[in-house]
Amino acid sequence: MIIQGEPGKGRVFLAHGAGAGMESDFLQDVAQRLVIAGFQVVRFNFPYMERICLEGKQRPPDRLPKLIEHYKQLVEQFDDGVPAWLAGKSMGGRVATHCLDLAGVQGALVFGYPFHPAGKPEKLRIDHLGVIDKPVLIFQGTRDKLGSYQEVLEYALPSSVHLCWAEDGDHDLKPRKSSGFVQSQHLDAAVASIEEFIR
Questions:
Q1: What are the tens digits of pLDDT across the range 98-124?
Q2: What does the alpha-carbon distance between residue 107 and residue 190 come to, in Å, rounded to a whole number?
Q3: For residue 41, what is the domain's CATH number?
Q4: Which helix (H) or strand (E) holds 85?
């Protein structure tokens, strides 16, 4: 676990995606931006990722219930009244949206929500979003292969889910050079949106 910054505006728990842990360039970049914006950021690895780091051998993520349990136990260690936002990249963000029933949690921040597995648009992962009464901010690339702009427009998402689109962004919010955008612009916009929403 890595803790950065002071909780002036709140504490953000930042979970990793399925294939890269808390030290990934993407999470480090997002964490640094959030710290500069005045948040304390807690990055952590799920148990299966810890085993990958120790053994140096790839393995699939644990099943969703085990990931949810680990996330909840981690958040519950910080029982100091600081407003908490549960966040994550892809899989980590999906897990975060399953943990919003915890006391003191204000909502979720998701970078690249995996609306469906790659190449399987019929297997949607949105049913639980309909019963969430806390806000969920999703930062999604318009050409994300796990939920593109055209696909997500067709979903019946509840009003608690707020989508912020990164033009031409992929699953890492990274646009193509020909788009005229760069990833850092999209990450800046995401953090600005978080600040505005929380304010």
A1: 999 999 999 999 999 999 999 999 999
A2: 15
A3: 3.40.50.1820
A4: strand 84-89
